[in-house]
């Protein structure tokens, strides 16, 4: 069983919280998107409002195990402090994440306040899940809470090894929400259960497609990976993205789908261009008529309509990966159509779940982040969860 922070007795306790403050910064080190900080606030407030100290630990970027000013969490502490000022909650920054400096900062912190520790990845021991480092971190708190779903698929010191030092360990509100929505979608979905898979390649998503073949009623394929399926069907794909070494696998997946009675729907039309560029010089073709030398960069309008129809009549939809090169304005219509269909379906009672990464970026870009049931905060973690893999950062919380 995994307990939630809201069920824990936190008054007079120092609660070590693993948050995901791995936020984007620009060249000058300024924060360009504070969504992850904003999303962590309910868990933090649940601790400080009830008279605990929230001791926050996170990584930022890839400093490769050494201190590096480019990746200091100090600006994040300043940003959090400005957000907390109106709530009258003090935020202190500890310039070390473990050892005497961190211990002193924690000892000084009054109840009802926040301490943010310096970047965990300034120590190689973090990613190595080093037992001594886990013990050093554990000394900083009376209780452990993990709210960083984005790193829950990694067995690092702050996400895995540390948990065994605490009898009182729990999940934060973000992880609880992920487990609720992703867990329910797999274990007890409102049917039909539909998965939409896109993105560049099949290779990174074989395991998840395989797992979804056992749980879904319908799987829609879009993005670059559709051309490997089209090739497996014996169609010409021009110069589209293809993984020649996965054509046989695509054939097997289609075979498996038909044996299991799962509808695997491959696009019927595509938007093609002669170069990989954001060009208005493009046109729609049927997938059995992709000209030589042309590449498919988006799904076409017939496919958009077909996919929207499937989404609208689903019970639950899980979406991972864009339908086309949505970074290019000329090739974002397919991804936008799926985002729109997800939003409309949600309004009629369909449960809609968006995996992290590019599909989460797309629903946000198209203004639908609030119009779907759940947007996962972890791309890799949500894929591994859907594959049925146990996430180290989640199992470590089991009491
Ligand atoms: P992934 O990281 O595998 O989820 O892939 C995401 C990337 O796939 C995005 O950057 C898209 O631009 C890219 N993508 C989607 N459709 C296509 C396509 N038809 N050809 C090439 N790249 C694509």
Textual characterization of the structure:
- The protein is α/β, with parallel strands linked by helices.
- The protein folds into 2 domains: 5-176, Rossmann fold, CATH 3.40.50.1260; 189-387, Rossmann fold (3-Layer(aba) Sandwich), CATH 3.40.50.1260.
- Helices cover 35% and strands 16% of the residues.
- The protein has helices spanning 35-48, 74-85, 100-108, 124-127, 131-138, 173-187, 206-215, 226-232, 247-260, 301-312, 333-347, 357-365, 379-386, 392-395; strands at 14-18, 53-57, 91-94, 114-117, 143-146, 169-171, 193-197, 218-221, 263-265, 269-273, 283-286, 295-299, 316-320, 351-354, 374-375.
- The strands form 3 sheets. A 6-stranded parallel sheet has the order 3-4-2-1-5-6, sandwiched between helices. A 6-stranded parallel sheet has the order 9-8-7-13-14-15, with helices on both faces. It has a 3-stranded antiparallel sheet with strand order 11-10-12.
- α3 links the parallel β3 (91-94) and β4 (114-117).
- α7 runs parallel beside α9 (247-260), α8 (226-232) packs across α9 and α10 (301-312) packs parallel to α11.
- It is elongated and about 70 Å long.
- The structure holds adenosine monophosphate.
What is the topology?
Elements lengths: L13 E5 L16 H14 L4 E5 L16 H12 L5 E4 L5 H9 L5 E4 L6 H4 L3 H8 L4 E4 L22 E3 L1 H15 L5 E5 L8 H10 L2 E4 L4 H7 L14 H14 L2 E3 L3 E5 L9 E4 L8 E5 L1 H12 L3 E5 L12 H15 L3 E4 L2 H9 L8 E2 L3 H8 L5 H4 L4
The structure holds adenosine monophosphate.
The site of adenosine monophosphate has 15 residues, from strand 12.
């Amino acid at each position: 069983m995994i307990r939630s922070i809201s069920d824990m007795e936190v008054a007079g306790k120092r609660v070590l919280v693993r948050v995901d403050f791995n936020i984007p910064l620009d060249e000058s080190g300024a924060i360009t998107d504070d969504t992850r900080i904003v999303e962590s606030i309910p868990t933090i407030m649940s601790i400080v409002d009830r008279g605990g100290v929230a001791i926050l630990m996170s990584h930022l970027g890839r400093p490769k195990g050494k201190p590096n000013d480019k990746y200091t969490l100090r600006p994040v502490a300043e940003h959090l402090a400005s957000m907390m000022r109106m709530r009258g909650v003090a935020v202190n920054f500890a310039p070390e994440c473990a050892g005497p400096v961190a211990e002193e900062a924690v000892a000084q912190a009054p109840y009802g306040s926040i301490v943010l520790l310096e970047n965990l990845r300034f120590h190689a021991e973090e990613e190595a899940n080093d037992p001594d480092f886990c013990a050093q971190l554990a000394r900083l708190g009376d209780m452990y809470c993990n709210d960083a779903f984005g790193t829950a698929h990694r067995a690092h010191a702050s996400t895995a090894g540390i948990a065994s030092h605490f009898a009182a360990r729990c999940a934060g509100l973000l992880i609880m929400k992920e487990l609720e929505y992703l867990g329910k979608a797999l274990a007890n979905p409102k049917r039909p259960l539909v998965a939409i898979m896109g993105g560049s390649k099949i290779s990174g998503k074989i395991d998840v497609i395989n797992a979804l073949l056992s749980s879904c009623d319908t799987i829609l394929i879009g993005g670059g990976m559709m051309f490997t399926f089209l090739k497996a069907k014996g169609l010409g794909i021009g110069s589209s993205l293809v993984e020649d070494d996965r054509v046989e696998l695509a054939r097997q997946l289609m075979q498996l789908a038909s044996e299991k009675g799962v509808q695997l729907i491959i696009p019927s039309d595509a938007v093609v261009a002669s170069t990989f560029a954001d060009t208005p010089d493009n046109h729609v073709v049927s997938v059995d008529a992709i000209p030589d030398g042309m590449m498919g960069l988006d799904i076409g309008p017939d496919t958009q309509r077909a996919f929207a129809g499937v989404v609208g009549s689903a019970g639950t939809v899980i979406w991972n990966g864009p339908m086309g090169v949505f970074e290019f304005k000329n090739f974002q219509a397919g991804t936008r159509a799926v985002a729109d269909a997800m939003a409309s379906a949600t309004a009629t009672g369909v449960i809609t779940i968006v995996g992290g990464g590019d599909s989460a970026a797309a629903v946000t870009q198209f203004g639908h982040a609030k119009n779907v049931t759940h947007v996962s905060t972890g791309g890799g973690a949500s894929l591994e969860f859907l594959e049925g893999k146990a996430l180290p950062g989640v199992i470590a919380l089991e009491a």
